[in-house]
Amino acid sequence: TGAISSLQRQLEIQQSQLRRIRSEKEMLQRQLREREDQLQAMSDKFCSLTEEQRKEEITAKMEEENRSLQQVVTEQESQLAEQNKLISELQETIARLRAEVGTSRRHILEQTQAQKEIQSQAEALQHTELQTRVALECISSKFERYRSKIIQATFSVEGSQNPSAELTDEEVLEAMQ
After folding, report:
1. Is residue 36 part of a domain?
2. Is there a contact between 174 and 154 (Cβ–Cβ < 8 Å)?
3. Which of 7, 22, 136, 150 has CA 20 to 30 A from 174's CA?
4. Distance CA 138, CA 127 (A)
5. CA pair distance 136, 170, nearest whole angstrom
6. Is 72 domain-assigned?
7. How far apart are CA 136 and CA 158, in angstroms?
8. Domain that holds residue 94
9. pLDDT in tens, 17-58
10. How far apart are CA 89 and CA 106, in angstroms?
């Protein structure tokens, strides 16, 4: 009896599942028929459109695409004009900078030449200064010898006294007079 009751329960469960599946099948069949009806209605509607309406729709779409493309072309032309303007400005800047570089190079060359001339003049002045110092030393030496001779001649006269300290040029001149 346990096996029979177990089998009966299984039979009831399977019958319940069968009813549920049949119910779902009917619902799906209904949905399928509804969708077939909708599809048929859309198909009928689409077929009812005349060839002329299709051409109008295509023409409208093409006009819309043309407007869109014209807008893109206008934007790109505007960007191109801005880029050309920027390129022109950059070319002007490059030309100006090249001119400034040329001017700077000329100034540097002129300054270099002026520096060489000044250096040459400085070397000439140093040489002249050296010659002048040598001449001054020679003259100073001759002057000292001459002064010494004057002092000897002045104080070698009879009745004159030898100086006790170093004499200045004015004292020598007084003694000589």
Report:
1. yes
2. no
3. 136
4. 17
5. 22
6. yes
7. 35
8. 1-110
9. 999 999 999 999 999 999 999 888 887 777 766 666 777 888
10. 26
Question: Cβ(148)–Cβ(170) under 8 Å?
Answer: no
In a domain, 131, yes or no: no
- For residues 116-145, b (16+ Cβ closer than 10 Å) or e, as one string? eeeeeeeeeeeeeeeeeeeeeeeeeeeeee
For the chain, the domain total comes to 1
Question: For the segment 111-129, what is each residue's pLDDT rounded down to a tens digit?
Answer: 999 999 999 999 999 999 9
**Measuring CA to CA, how many Å separate 86 from each of 72, 75, 98?**
21, 17, 18
Mean pLDDT of 136-148: 90
Tokens found for residue 85: 């303007």
DSSP 1: -
Q: Strand runs (DSSP E) across the chain, as ranges?
A: none
In the chain, the largest separation of any two C-alpha atoms, in whole Å, equals 186
Answer yes or no: is 118 within a domain: no
Amino acid at 175: A
Identity of the residue numbered 115: Q
